[in-house]
Amino acid sequence: MSDFEERTVGDLRIRIDRTLCVGFADCITEAPEAFVLDESGTAVFVKPEDVERERLLKACDVCPVDAITVWDADGAQIVPPSL
Q1: Residue-level pLDDT, tens digit, the chain, 83 residues
Q2: What are phi and psi of 49, to 5 degrees?
Q3: Topology given in CATH for the domain delimited by 4-76
Q4: How far is 44 from 83, CA to CA, in rounded Å?
Q5: CB 69 within 8 A of CB 58
Q6: 40: left (phi over 0), alpha (psi -120 to 50) or beta
Q7: pTM confidence score
């Protein structure tokens, strides 16, 4: 399995960095339709396209270790917010 899992959802490109994810599951708490923990305790996608955009962005943003990155249609990183 790759170190990254990536999906395009609408105009968002979302990537889970499996090497950073430690399984806190905050993303799942926010959007259980979009993410689950796999057998190794790492977040993976389920159906992120079924989640309303703002809730999906919040679910990605709550990751305490920034294992989920989101870019907009222009390629600008929006999660985690760049400084």
Answers
A1: 689 999 999 999 999 999 999 999 999 999 999 999 999 999 999 999 999 999 999 999 999 999 999 999 999 999 998 76
A2: -70, -15
A3: Alpha-Beta Plaits (3.30.70)
A4: 27
A5: no
A6: alpha
A7: 0.94
